[in-house]
Amino acid sequence: MTNGQPTVLIVDDTPENLSILGELLQPTYRVRAANSGRRALQIASSHPAPDLILLDVMMPDMDGYAVLAELRRSPATRLIPVIFVTAMDGTEDEEHGLDCGAVDYITKPLRPAIVLARVRTQLELKRARDFLSDQNSYLEGEVARRMGENQLIQQVSIHALARLAETRDPETGNHLRRTQEYVRTLALSLADHPRFSAFLDPRTIDALAQSAPLHDIGKVGIPDHVLLKPGKLTPEEWEVMKTHAKLGSDAIEMAERDAEKPVEFLAIAKLIAHYHHERWDGSGYPAGLAGDQIPIAARLMALADVFDALICKRVYKPAFPLEQARSMIVDGSGSHFDPDIVLAFTGQFPTFKAIADAYAD
Is the pTM of this model over 0.85? Predict the structure, then answer.
């Protein structure tokens, strides 16, 4: 509508009919006129688009049915209501016009009161539809905005928790961000693999990447003399260190119990925290799981975590060059790591290098 005044496009190949309709409608509406189907389509596609079209059926070259079909094909004009205006007054003609998508049917000779009433009714209906559409768009935008805010709050909360663990182990630097991106890269690479596709749908991949930073949250429960020891751990100290996996999963499980309903990323985070130190051959901890017994999320995290530990300096070891770390991961295929995940790693190794560079300490 222009300046609050609805625009009505009248289409007829007879000048007299255009004149009659124009004089009838102009006191109330902004009127545009077209004397052919082609011209009508041009006007309908221009800005501002008409709010209603009164369309003659019987026109040379392109009749009203053909014009309506073209209007309905274009996203820009498909929602403009069309009233057929015609001298044909048979019931079958009217049914055909309505079947084609017209909203109403006016027969000639025109009766001014009928024309004005039908036009007013259709414009009021269009105004109501437009209002509902605007409301729906607003509500969809508001829902999207609030979901975005909730996701941001969730991500910040996850990172705050993960950083809490990191403050106990300050040498990790950007470890959280790197491992998060490594896990995402592996999951995307394996999404179509027959062994992984049922699990790795887009929603789960997002949840995986979101929950990955919580993998070592259990370290907050490890005493300083063990966690921060500069040398090799004694067997007793190593047993204490290994408890961080269960400490982490227990903490996440308590958070799950506090939630009113299941939270997908917490369920995945719990699996990652608990089982990311399991090994493919069953020699890992804390449960000694082997092969496919180990949750997929934990298998992905295991490789990401070990690779990052290899390329970073620690109090107990130097940083290994990227290519050497790659070879060490490959050597662990079938013993430490799921062989198919190692294949995905080697295929995505340039991406791993880019992530390591982008988030270097």
Answer: no
CB atoms within 10 A of CB 8: 24
pLDDT in tens, 133-177: 888 888 888 887 877 777 666 666 676 667 666 666 655 558 888
Query: Phi then psi for 81, rounded to 5 degrees?
Result: -70, 140
**Torsion, CA 233, CA 236, CA 237, CA 240, rounded to 10:** 140
Calculate ∠ Cα 183-189-195, nearest 5°. 95
Q: What angle do CA 138, 263, 141 make, to 5 degrees?
A: 10
Q: Please, is 201 exposed, middle or buried when counting C-beta atoms within 10 Å of its C-beta (0-12, 13-18, 19+)?
A: exposed
φ and ψ of 318, to 5 deg = -80, 170
* For residues 30-51, average pLDDT: 93
- CA dihedral for 346, 347, 353, 358, sign (positive or negative): negative
Query: CB of 89 within 8 A of CB of 60?
Result: no
What CATH fold (topology level) applies to the domain 168-358? Hypothetical protein af1432 (1.10.3210)
Cα radius of gyration rounded to whole Å, the chain: 34
Distances (CA, A) of 56 to 6, 66, 198, 213, 251: 20, 11, 56, 66, 73
Domain boundaries, the chain: 7-139, 168-358
> Is domain 7-139 in CATH 3.40.50.2300, yes or no?
yes
∠ Cα 73 75 80 (to 5°): 85
Rounded Cα–Cα distance for residues 208 and 273 (Å): 12
Residues paired with residue 85 on neighbouring β-strands, in sequence order: 56, 106
Q: Given the structure tokens 């509508």, which residue do they identify? A: 1
